């Protein structure tokens, strides 16, 4: 299965008639493995800051999480494994696997819990597969 298929069929799928606004699978170095057409153009330093927060949990909290120039308030996650951000009625979930970052961006009517479920389920699967 191609990486694009994981994005199209697993991250951008309908859940209770809801769907992520955008999704991507990136390498730890910020290289794009696959992404939805709607995924924002991000800056390399944004991915570097995200990777730093996985190594030093809480480092993003004072400044916020930036992705594609959009600032998210960092909310509870799982240190070293999941970073969650909130902005207005939407947000972002980032799951770290062995080699990749699985990123889902959502907005109402999808909830943070639904986004977490979609992103983290695929992240756990890829982690178990060695990715």
TrEMBL record:
Q: Name one GO cellular component term.
A: cytoskeleton
Q: Which PROSITE patterns match?
A: PROFILIN (PS00414)
Q: Which UniProt keywords apply?
A: Actin-binding, Cytoplasm, Cytoskeleton
Write down a Pfam family by its short name. Answer: Profilin
SUPFAM superfamilies given for it? Answer: Profilin (actin-binding protein)
SMART domains, per database record: PROF
Q: Where does the UniProt annotation locate this protein? A: Cytoplasm, Cytoskeleton
Protein name as annotated: Profilin
What molecular functions are annotated in GO for this chain? actin monomer binding
Q: Which InterPro entries match?
A: PFN, PFN_euk, PFN_sf, Profilin_CS
Physiological role: Binds to actin and affects the structure of the cytoskeleton. At high concentrations, profilin prevents the polymerization of actin, whereas it enhances it at low concentrations.
CDD domains xrefs: PROF
- So which domain of life are we looking at? Eukaryota
- Indicate the family of this protein: Belongs to the profilin family.
> Subunit structure, briefly?
Occurs in many kinds of cells as a complex with monomeric actin in a 1:1 ratio.
């Amino acid at each position: 299965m191609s990486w694009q298929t994981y994005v199209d069929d697993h991250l951008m799928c309908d859940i209770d008639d809801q769907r992520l606004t955008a999704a991507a699978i990136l390498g730890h170095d910020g290289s794009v493995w696959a992404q939805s057409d709607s995924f924002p153009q991000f800056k390399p330093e944004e991915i570097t800051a995200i990777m730093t927060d996985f190594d030093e949990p809480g480092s993003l909290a004072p400044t916020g999480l930036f992705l594609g120039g959009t600032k998210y308030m960092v909310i509870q996650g799982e240190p070293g494994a999941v970073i969650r951000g909130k902005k207005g009625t939407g947000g972002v979930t980032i799951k770290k696997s062995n080699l990749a970052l699985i990123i889902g961006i959502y907005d109402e009517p999808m909830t943070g819990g639904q986004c977490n479920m979609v992103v983290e389920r695929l992240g756990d699967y890829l982690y178990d597969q060695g990715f």
